[in-house]
Amino acid sequence: MILRQVCELNPTSQIIQTNLGGLLQERYERFGNVKDLEDAIAVLRRANELVSDDPVDKTTCLNNLGLSLWARFRILKEATKDLDEAADLLRQAEARIPRNSPEKPLCLHNLACIYESRFGASGDIKDIEEAITLLEQAGKLATGDHTFEASRLGELATALHSRYRHLNDINDLSSAIASMNAAVQLTPNGRPDLANRLHNLAAFLLARFERLADEKDLKDAASLFSRAAALTPVDHPNKKARTERAKASARLLHSKQHPAKHKEHDTTGTSKAKRKVEDKCLIM
Q1: What's the pLDDT score for residue 54?
Q2: What is the mean pLDDT of the chain?
Q3: Which residues of 97-107 are buried (b: 16+ CB within 10 A; e: fewer)?
Q4: Residue 247 in contact with residue 214, Cβ under 8 Å?
Q5: Which residue among 56, 155, 206, 249 is least crowded, i.e. fewest CB within 10 A of its CB?
Q6: Can you tell me the distance from the alpha carbon of 219 to that of 254, in angstroms, rounded to the nearest whole number?
Q7: Residue 20 lies inside a defined structural domain of this protein
Q8: 143-148 long-range contacts, CB within 8 A, separation 24+
Q9: Is residue 14 included in any domain, yes or no?
Q10: Is the pLDDT of residue 31 over 50?
Q11: Does residue 126 form part of some domain?
């Protein structure tokens, strides 16, 4: 890589270090070589040490290093200190971004995602509470970009669902359903995210059916599982699992609508179908 050679010849150039770190991170995202990510982190650390107090340059360095550390945790899932440092760096970056800047909502969104990851690692309810607060703040500052808003709403729904699973407050589950439904409405046909959001919305509805026994939730969930499976490409790693979920939820719905036909199988077929849906309805 020519830029690496230029970097070696100019070890005190923050701009060159930042550009090299960005390219290494892009190459990691494309090819998945963890060494590229490790190198990106090392280079971006150097850039962060060299950067002046220029608001734009400093914010860029803090943001890039924080996101790289978060990426390393998501891949290796080893050092939670990566999450702590990433959260601290993005906090610093967010504080430097003016309230009216279009970059502010995205930084808040990314910071919320880091807190969600930390909640998953630690189980500390304060982390998921903070993620929800940050995503709500991002929504108040959003500029009307439908792609961003769909992503934010989907992330907010996931965070609310995580809090529901932790505290068992049905209001969180209903709010998660409303947010994910809004995200689905903003996601155009043909977008890869649509199948994921449909699947997650179905999973949330199924969870509410288990709590409240409202058959409409089960009916809607079965329909959404079917749509999600149909929209998932044949070569997608989740195609088989989503197809099985769609079939299992349809069988469960049929057993509720026609109990007499399923009575003799209550301890086998229906329960098995029900377990199959519940066991596999993980958020993806």
Answers
A1: 82
A2: 89
A3: beeeeebbbbb
A4: no
A5: 56
A6: 9
A7: yes
A8: 143/102, 143/105, 146/186, 148/105, 148/106, 148/109
A9: yes
A10: yes
A11: no
Q: Which of 223, 145, 214, 207 is nearest to 175 (CA)?
A: 207
Copy the structure tokens of residue 38. 């490790």
Task: For residue 268, give the 3-state DSSP assignment.
Answer: helix
The enclosing domain of 56 has a CATH number of 1.25.40
Which of 29, 45, 76 is a domain's end point?
A: 76
Q: Supply 51's token pair.
A: 């950067």
Six token digits for residue 75: 């891949």
In a domain, 138, yes or no: no
Backbone angles phi, psi at 12, to 5 degrees: -105, 10
Can you give the residue range of the structural domain that contains 55? 1-76
Q: What is the pLDDT of residues 225-273, one digit of tens each?
A: 999 999 999 999 999 999 999 999 999 999 999 887 765 555 444 444 4
**Nearest by Cα to 207 from 174, 229, 159, 239:** 174
Taking the C-alpha atoms of residue 225 and residue 196, their distance in angstroms, rounded to an integer, is: 10
Contact 160, 117 (CB under 8 A): no
Give tens-digit pLDDT for 180-191: 999 999 999 999
Over its C-alpha atoms, the chain yields an Rg (Å, rounded) of 22
Q: Which pLDDT score is estimated for 282?
A: 38
Single out the residue in 47, 76, 105 at which a domain terminates: 76
Q: Does residue 59 sit in helix, strand or coil?
A: helix
How far apart are alpha carbons 143 and 283 in whole angstroms? 28
What separation in angstroms does the CA of 50 have from each of 15, 31, 57, 154? 9, 29, 10, 37
Read off φ and ψ for residue 101, nearest 5 degrees. Answer: -75, 140
Name residue 185's amino acid. Answer: Q
Enter the DSSP assignment of 236: S
Q: What is the pLDDT of residues 146-176, one digit of tens each?
A: 999 999 999 999 999 999 999 999 999 999 9
Q: What phi and psi, each to the nearest 5 degrees, are found at residue 169?
A: -90, 115
Count of beta carbons in the 10 Å neighbourhood of residue 241: 17
CA distance 33 to 215: 47
